[in-house]
Design goal:
Pnp Oxidase, Chain A; 10-stranded mixed β-sheet; disordered N terminus
Length: 177
């Protein structure tokens, strides 16, 4: 675990990588980088409900950004999206995403994860998660798990402190940019 390094990288072992290739579950990310996962979760839940901005890849290949409710449930990072929304179309077609926690100007830490979304089609699991979700979930909201390939945490003591101190985590098989 890293406490204050700049651009440090922690790598999970090959055993921790799930069958999605270079993407791992939130729980596996948290096991490999517990402090970053805890601080990231804190930023996602800063306002009470899990919230952030979800970037997806549109059909024309351009990025698209959407406000979203997101939740860490057990070892999974999850989102419900409206079936007829652009974000649902993007996730079903391409699956790549980036999620950024909202920033608070008074405490401007940053948290970003990116990876691939996978549709959860188990009706029992979906119903259990929907019961305790942030809003009422109808059948028109498919459930996606967001696996994690790369995470970045940026820390600043104040809005005037620049540049942020960044820490980066990447799953064991993720390519370097």
């Amino acid at each position: 675990m890293h406490s204050s390094g700049y651009a440090s990288v922690t790598v999970l072992t090959q055993d921790a990588v799930v069958s999605q290739g270079r993407n791992v579950s939130w729980g596996q990310f948290a096991a490999g980088e517990p402090e970053m996962a805890a601080r990231g979760r804190q930023l996602l839940y800063r306002r009470g409900d899990g919230e952030g901005l979800l970037a997806t890849v549109a059909g024309d290949g351009l990025p698209r950004v959407h406000p979203i409710n997101v939740g860490v449930v057990g070892d999974r990072l999850l989102v419900f999206v409206q079936r007829r929304s652009a974000k649902a179309s993007d996730l079903a077609r391409d699956g790549r995403y980036a999620l950024h926690a909202h920033q608070d100007p008074t405490e401007p830490h940053e948290f970003l994860v990116r990876g691939r979304a996978r549709l959860i089609d188990d009706p029992t699991m979906r119903a259990a998660i929907a019961r305790d979700w942030f809003f009422s979930v109808s059948d028109d909201y498919p459930l996606y798990e967001l696996s994690v390939e790369h995470a970045i945490f940026g820390e600043r003591g104040s809005a005037n402190e620049w540049p942020p101190r960044y820490r980066s985590w990447r799953s064991a098989t993720a390519p370097n940019p």
